[in-house]
Amino acid sequence: MTAPAAGADSAADQPNYAPIPRSALGPALNDQGYYVGRVERNLYYVTDGVYQSAFLTTADGVVVFDAPPSIGHNIRRAVDEIAAANGVSNTVTHFVYSHHHADHGGAASIFDGDVVRVGHEETRRLLQRDDDPARPLPEVTFADQYTLEVGGERVELAWRGPNHTPDNIYIHFPEHDTLMFIDVVNAGWVPIYNVNLSEDVIGYMGAPAIALDYPWTHFICGHLGRLATHDDVAVHQQYIADIEASSREALASIDPIPFYVAAGENFWAGVKAHLDTVTERAAAPVIAKYTGVLAAADIAEFTRTTTFQIMQSVRLDRGFTVSTYIHP
Ligand SMILES: [Zn+2]
User: Fold this and answer.
1) How many Å lie between the centroid of ligand 1 and the Cα of residue 51?
2) CA 213 to centroid of ligand 1, rounded, Å
3) How far apart are the CA of 83 and the centre of ligand 1, in A?
4) What's the gap in Å between 326 CA and the centre of ligand 1?
5) pLDDT digits (tens, 9 = 90+) for 141-188
6) HEC profile for the chain?
7) 254 CA distance to ligand 1 centroid (A)?
C-alpha cells in the first residue's frame, strides 16, 4: 500500500510544530468525547477539548451558558449525568448567550420548549440579522446589566463595551467565585488569527483588565480543555502588550518612503512591502519569546496576523506615526 501523496492542501501535510506543553491541555475526555467538571458547588463546565460550555443546576432547573455545536448533544448528556448523580432536576429552564457567534451558540436550538433565552440586546439584533435557525433569538435582553436569578442562584451579566464582538458579555457568578468571558483569553494558548478573530482591537486589548476587576478564582474562557487562571490572563496580557510595544518600535524605526519610491506608481505595492516588513519585524521577537510558553506560539501566522491587526490599531486608532506627520 502506498499512502496518497500529501499536497500542500492536504490535511495530512502538517509542519513539525513544537510539542504542546502538558499544562495547556485539559482533562481526558470520556468515550462520548466530552469532559464535565465541577467549577464550584453546582456550577459545571463541559468541554470537548477545544470548546467550552457551562451549566448551573438549581432547585428550579438548569441554566446553560453557551452551546458550541462541536460539543452539541454532549451538553445534554453532561447535564443529565450531573443531575442524576446529584438528584436534582435536569430540566433546562434558561439558556444564556455569551455572544452571537455560531461556534459558541450554534447548538442553542437543542434546548427548546419552555426554555427562557437570555442575551445582550445586540446579540438579539445580530442573530436577527444572521437568520440562523440553530440560534433562536433571546427573549430576555438587556443593555448594560442583568441579574439572572433562578432557583436561589444569582448570575450577573454585564456588557462593558465591544471587544471580540460588539455583543460579548461578562458572565459573573459571584456565589461561585467564577467569571465566564469568551474568546479573548485562550487558557495556555496563543490567540488564533487576527486577534482571535476579533472585531474591536482596542476593546479586545482592554478586556482582560476588565475581567481582572471581577473577583474570581475560576475563569471559563470558552476554549481548550481546562479553565483559566489569573496567571493565564497575565501571560495573555503580556503577550498582547509585547506585540503592541514591538509594533510601535517597528513602525517608528522603519522608514516607509523607500518602499513607496521602489514601488513607483503601484502605490498599493508600496503599502504592502512597508506593512509586511513592519509586521515581520514586530512579530518575530514575540514568536520567539512565547514559543514553549504559550501553546502553538510557533504557528507564526497567528502572531503575525494578530500583530498586523494591533499594528493597524496603533496607527489608525491611536494615530501613532500617522497623525504625528501632517503635510506642511
Ligand atoms: Zn466568537
Assistant:
1) 11
2) 22
3) 29
4) 38
5) 999 999 999 999 999 999 999 999 999 999 999 999 999 999 999 999
6) CCCCCCCCCCCCCCCCCCCCCHHHCCCCCCCCCCEEEEEECCEEEEECCCEEEEEEEECCEEEEECCCCCCCHHHHHHHHHHHHHHCCCCCEEEEECCCCCHHHHCCHHHCCCCCEEEEEHHHHHHHHHHCCCCCCCCCEEECCEEEEEECCEEEEEECCCCCCCCCCCEEEECCCCEEECCCCCCCCECCCHHHHHCCCHHHHHHHHHHHHHCCCCEEECCECCCCECHHHHHHHHHHHHHHHHHHHHHHHHCCCHHHHHHHCCCHHHHHHHHHHHHHHHHHHHHHHHHECCEECCCCHHHHHHHHHHHHHHHHHCCCCCCCCCCCC
7) 34
| Interval between CA 70 and ligand 1 midpoint (Å) | 14
Q: Grid coordinates 474562557 are at which residue?
A: 221
Q: What spacing in Å lies between the alpha carbon of 222 and ligand 1's midpoint?
A: 9
Query: Residue 99 C-alpha to ligand 1 middle, in angstroms?
Result: 7
* Bridge partners for 120 per DSSP: 142
C-alpha cell at 129: 440579522
Grid coordinates given for 107 = 447548538
Residue 194 Cα, ligand 1 centroid: separation in angstroms? Answer: 12
Set of cell numbers at residue 149: 436569578
Q: What is the whole-number distance in angstroms between the Cα of residue 287 and the centre of ligand 1?
A: 24
Q: What is the pLDDT of residue 1?
A: 41
Interatomic CA distance for residues 86 and 200, integer angstroms: 42
Instruction: State the Cα torsion 308-312-314-317 to the nearest 10°.
Output: -150
C-alpha cell recorded at residue 103? 461556534
Q: How is residue 235 written as a grid cell? A: 501571560
Measured in Å, residue 163 CA sits from the centre of ligand 1 at 10
- Indicate whether 9 pLDDT > 80: no
* Closest of 180, 46, 61 to residue 116, by C-alpha: 61
CA of 94 to the centre of ligand 1 (A): 21
Q: Which three cell numbers stand for residue 254?
A: 522603519
